[in-house]
Structures are given as C-alpha cells and as structure tokens.
Design the sequence.
C-alpha cells in the first residue's frame, strides 16, 4: 500500500459582507476557491476543494504544484 503524503497550501480567507460568511481561495491552485458561513466551514470546504483539485490533477497525470513563497501585505494610499 502506498503511503499518503501530507501537503500544505496557503489559503486566503476574505469576509464576504454582502453575501455573509467567508470566501477562501488557494493562490497556488488557480481556480480553487470556495465559501462558508463561518471560518470553520470555509476551512473545511477549502480542504475538500483542494482534495478535488489534486485528485483531478492526478487523474490527468499532471504533476502536483509546489507552493512558492506566499507573501501578504497591506499598504495605505491617500485619495
């Protein structure tokens, strides 16, 4: 039996005030995003979305992406 790997991906969570809840997306996996009513639900949903994304890559015999360094910052501008 093949041993399973543990992979780690950065996830960005954003509050979605108009819809309520949170949106979660994975910068390393283009198009991999989901939402949840709570942060906990968004986290569980994004784990499932990542697994589906990776399963699709494997089914199509594509390589799994390696995450590059993800930086997040905040800047102020005057308008």
Sequence:
């Amino acid at each position: 039996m093949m041993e399973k790997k543990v992979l780690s991906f950065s996830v960005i969570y954003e509050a979605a005030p108009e819809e309520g809840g949170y949106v979660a997306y994975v910068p390393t996996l283009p198009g991999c995003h989901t939402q949840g009513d709570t942060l906990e639900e968004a986290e569980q949903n994004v784990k499932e979305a990542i697994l589906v994304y990776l399963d699709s890559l494997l089914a199509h015999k594509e390589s799994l992406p390696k995450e590059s360094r993800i930086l997040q910052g905040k800047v102020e501008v005057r308008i």
Notes: The first helix runs from residue 39 to 59. Residues 10-79 form a domain with the Double Stranded RNA Binding Domain fold (CATH 3.30.160.250). The chain has one domain: 10-79.
